[in-house]
Amino acid sequence: MLNSSPISDRSVQEIPNCDHCEAEPAVLQNLTDDILSVEKAQIMAEFFAMLGDPNRLRILSILSRQELCVHDLAELVGMSESAVSHQLRVLRTMRLVSYRKSKRRVYYQLLDHHVLELYQSVSEHLDE
């Protein structure tokens, strides 16, 4: 949810003209209406910080291709099953992955297309 900053509570006439810039008060008012709320900015910062772990990104890169169980993920990334399980718990908490049970196995997959799009977008950006 986008909230306004305290400046957006002012009327357009109250926003002073800057002697150094050419922005009109009405333009500034429109911009203040679109500023992220402090709360949403904090949540987004935590989300991106969570993605700052290379092991989590490697797990996401695999899950972007196919759902897998913890055992197979651990083999692929060269980590213990316990360490992979821990990373998956973090990813589940941030609602990036989900799981399904099939008999005695638990299979993990990306939660939705937003996660895949985010992963692909960042990967493509870095390849440019």
UniProtKB/TrEMBL annotation:
The HTH arsR-type domain is annotated at 36-128
Q: Which InterPro entries does the entry link to?
A: ArsR-like_HTH, ArsR_HTH, HTH_ArsR_DNA-bd_dom, Metal_resp_trans_reg, WH-like_DNA-bd_sf, WH_DNA-bd_sf
CDD domains in the cross-refs: HTH_ARSR (cd00090)
- For this entry, the protein name equals Winged helix-turn-helix transcriptional regulator
Q: What organism is this sequence from?
A: Pseudanabaena mucicola FACHB-723
Q: Which Gene3D superfamilies does the record match to this protein?
A: Winged helix-like DNA-binding domain superfamily/Winged helix DNA-binding domain
Q: Which UniProt keywords apply?
A: DNA-binding, Transcription, Transcription regulation
